[in-house]
Amino acid sequence: MFGRKKKRAPGSGVIEKTVSYMLAVPREIESVQNPMEVIARLRTGSLFQTEQAELQDGHIKVVIQYEGDDYQADIFAESYEIGPLFTINHQLSEADYSVVEESDQGVAVVMTFGEDVLKAYHLQLKILDTIVPDMAGMIDFCTERVLSGVWVKLAAQSMIQPSPDYLYAVQAVSNENGQVWLHTHGLNRCGAIEVEILDSDEENYQNHSAILQTLGKRIISDHTFIEEEDAFMVGRMNNGAYIVATWIAYEEALKLYPEDILGGVCDREDGHNEATGVVYLYLSEKDFENKKYRHVSAINEYLSDNVLMMYSNEETLRMSALAKERLHYFTNAIKNEETEGIMKIGLEVDEEYKQEEDFREHIWFHIKEINGSKAQAVLTQEPYYIKDLHEDAEMEVDLNDLTDWILYTPEGLVTPDSVYLLEKDPDSRA
């Protein structure tokens, strides 16, 4: 059992936002070498309104009006290097992959997010797409990820904001002893501390990572984060009990472990040494009252793929809107006999479980046939809150209640977010 050794003032989970630093890699570097042409694209672009754009010491300083708010951004040519911990987060065509790997030049956009961080991130994608319309890939230095230029274009031109998952990343670092150190990148630019888990292991780190993933998503959707040692509902375990998380300043957390722990002081010389907290769990209300917290491994036996993670209503609505905006990809794809699809549908729960008006349980169905706004479907899981509905039940579902969908194609899995994969010849992807 862990717990506070001595009383001290709790830390805040809210910090001043750091800058968001992203870079577009053009397929042809010549397309961005003339800064006046870049300024012209900014002024004539249709995705936002450029109020001011001036060239100063090789940097383009811009003021952009977008959805009622003004944003300042710094745009400049920049050489880049993809570090060893960077991940290729999207599937790129062979040609685009070669450009990203072989080039070392791109155009960076640096800005500070406003109050609505998802809106600001969406705007940053729109700026990148506007100034580099022939983008091979995009490097997000805040999350240490490389993204597809095709994805950026689709996301920039969409009416729906990208998933909060794009604003941060959960990185796993392991050692020869089987220890895994999980930590996020990107939450600082959203005005929150980064979160991490020490002393995870190779068998359970993916389930532990899901806890951090849910925390990050909720931080962004809720526009805030709890103070140190406060309680934060994350999800429900297989046994029906709630997962209640908290966090402790990393300096305090390290006192609970040997000095040579992976993620210790020696591993923080170049980063993860400020504005970060280590996540623990409260297993009961009494534990919370006494500020007794436990390592996430305390619930290992109750974690699995069927754990119910909790998202905000805002995120559920965003996912639903994107799924509906891109439903035509699903409808066209399942016409291929080699492609199967599942949909997540929001169904009304039993009266005894209704916590608010129109409270729904979002569950997955295998889709057999689509007829207009209806679909014949087979339930793929056991509901939590609908007693008379069971796995393998066949029923008609209303696509107006659609929350999400997944396609299983001969080339791989496709979601509303990854429809960029259907925009290119799959045989050409690396």
Q: How far is the N terminus from the C terminus?
A: 47 Å
Unreliable parts:
425-430
What is the count of DSSP helices, taking H or I runs of 4+ residues? Answer: 9
| Domain module tally | 3
Summarize the amount of helix as a percent range.
Answer: 10-25%
Mean pLDDT: 92
Order of strands, widest sheet: 3-4-5-7-2-8-9-6
User: How much strand?
Assistant: 25-35%
How many strands, what sense, and barrel or not for the largest sheet? 8 strands, mixed
**Class computed from helices, strands and strand pairing:** alpha+beta
What is the radius of gyration?
23 Å
Shape: globular
Strand element count:
23
Present the secondary structure layout.
Blueprint: E1 2-3, E2 20-26, H1 35-44, E3 49-56, E4 59-66, E5 69-79, E6 87-88, H2 94-102, E7 105-111, H3 117-131, E8 135-140, E9 145-148, H4 149-157, E10 169-174, E11 179-185, E12 194-201, H5 205-222, E13 232-236, E14 242-249, H6 250-254, E15 276-282, H7 285-289, E16 292-293, E17 308-309, H8 313-325, H9 327-333, E18 340-348, E19 360-371, E20 374-379, E21 394-398, E22 402-409, E23 412-414
Parallel strand pairs: 6-9, 12-15
Antiparallel strand pairs: 1-16, 2-7, 2-8, 3-4, 4-5, 5-7, 8-9, 10-11, 11-12, 13-14, 13-17, 14-15, 18-19, 18-22, 19-20, 20-21, 22-23
Helix pairs in contact: 3-4
Structure overview:
With 430 residues, the chain is of the alpha+beta class. It folds into three domains: 156 residues, no CATH class; 140 residues, 2-Layer Sandwich (TATA-Binding Protein); 116 residues, no CATH class. Helices cover 21% and strands 33% of the residues. The chain is built from nine helices and 23 strands. The strands form four sheets. The chain has an eight-stranded mixed sheet. It has a seven-stranded mixed sheet with strand order 10-11-12-15-14-13-17.
